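Re: weekly structure request thread

Next one in the queue (394 aa):
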Amino acid sequence: MQALALTCYTTVNALGRGLAPTLAALREGRSGLRPCDLMDAALTTWIGRVEGVEDEPVIARLSEYDCRNNRLAMLGLAADGFAAAVAKARERYGAHRVAVIIGTSTSGILSTELAYRQRDAAGKLPPDFHYRTTHENYSVTDFVCHYLGLQGLAFTISTACSSSAKVFASASRLIACGLCDAAVVGGVDSLCFTTLYGFSSLEIVSTSPCRPADAGRNGISIGEAAGFALLEKTDGRAGDICLLGYGESSDAYHMSTPHPEGAGARLAMARALERGGLSAADIDYINLHGTATRANDAAENLAVAALFGNRVACSSTKGWTGHTLGAAGITEAVIAALAIREGLLPMSLNTVTVDPEFTMKVLLANRNQPVRRVLSNSFGFGGSNASLILGAAR
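Done, posted below.
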């Protein structure tokens, strides 16, 4: 495949708004998780909430899109000069030649949850509730298009936790086919009662900050995030961080449990290496999906060990941000880009004792070293898997 440069990228998550606070927290080993304080959610768990989302409605010209998810998207678009970078791309290529592909799992479902609380005696929803521009999965993509003034191909991918990793694969195919010249890819998922109580009902929500790959791990910490990247063809400029490969697969094994031997995860990683013309020896660091559930981490360990043995350093960054669900792919792709740019391998925060049955090489402390290529994993419910390889331009 042709490498595509991430000419601008950004993330807003529980660590802060933009690359600088995210990088600072990674360097300091400082988590963004906090005891659950989303409205009146009565759960004993920790979450990765973005500070201040409640107080910043979307801009007036797009007020019909106002919901927590689109507010989070707006914060992401405003960070790190991302909107300005897209404006320049729009001038270069034309508004119809820049695609928009956004991943989300629950979109603005919180707006519907709150609307149901406000039903009248006849059960009618409040008149100011707009499903199409808030809850509907395309809402966030439509909002991003309007905010950035883009009029090209646009769609939403919703494959649970792999949603915003798969956007990179779709963008690569669109550009390769000549259907667009550049693409805004990203993911946005916000905290809501459905995910907090839903995952709790599955008994996979931890009552303490999550501990990926730890012997005593007992579940996820749910977070929220928005992240975006501008993908363009590269001329091999020094310093460009590029999408070098991607791989996708489907377990078709179980709705909420991964294949116990990590078959689909292994296939996604193998396909990413093959598509990028790379071998396992070319990877310097693996950002694990690493949710801190018993089944997921065990399956991923088998998949990673089968391809990489214990040679490649790996970690999960969900101890910092929480599991941001549909935004996990973009959040961790941005962290992968930071790892390359800064020469920093982040540790698996909160992990104290690695599961003795694991053979993959889990980092328990940050490591500073040159980083050429990073593999980032995102594995979703239903076995919808995606692996990305980012690296310096060749």
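The domain at 4-392 is CATH 3.40.47.10 (Peroxisomal Thiolase; Chain A, domain 1). The first strand starts at residue 4 and ends at 13.
Next request, please.
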